[in-house]
Amino acid sequence: MTVSAQPAAPLSSKPPKADAQLAAAVEEARAVLADSAGDSYGEHLGSVAEGERLVTHYFEAELAGYRGWRWAVTITRAPRSKTVTVDEVVMLPGEGALQAPEWVPWKERVRPSDLGPGDLVPAADDDPRLVPGYLVGDQPLTPSDLREEREVACEVGLGRRRVLSVAGRDEAADRWYAGAQGPTAPIAQAAPGHCGTCGFLVRIGGPLGSAFGVCANAASPSDGQAVSLDHGCGAHSDVHVEPPQIQLAADEPVLDTVNWDAWSDSDLEPIS
User: Fold this and answer.
1) Closest CA to 45 of 33, 34, 55, 60
2) Average pLDDT of 143-164?
């Protein structure tokens, strides 16, 4: 005997029907709100059916600083009972309500410019940008492996306990290349040459050295910073100023055609 599974009935998308008694209980909801909110409410704004024998009445909120908010009084009743009971009283934002911005974790809010003397920004044990020092970023590890091998590295004294991983290196390269020291910066677009051909570029080792170097020109805004090889600025080492084409000889007289000559009586010779 074969039993075929019957498809589950689709969930109804129709809104619940409002309970007539609860929808009409405006004064009961207002009395409950008066006990909870005092005189910080205004006119009745309507009601919404939340479920079977469950209705929420909305009232205008009259609190300073809560523009666009409204009081919500949710009431219900037991089956075959005419007694209205309160489920909850809350204040909810309405359309155009003034609200606080969405909360962002502090680690995502902190910017490099926020870091001052004595401030600490810890790196998590499972930070994908770091791996144990002796792996040199070549092997992905689980958080438990990271903790164990970090302890071993500390015990045997293998130098730095963690170093940049492949993911961390690629993330840094993408950030540098898209930043102010990359090829798309306005100063690079107008530069006479690229950093890769500049005599002030200091080469760096490792995989990043194929795309980046360090600027060592005190006249450049990128001095001491990592720059992409196709970045550039107006302080390129090949920039020269042509000397003036016309120079006056030192023994040539210079005629002043602007000022008046000053003469004294001693400068005049008597006419014989």
Assistant:
1) 60
2) 64
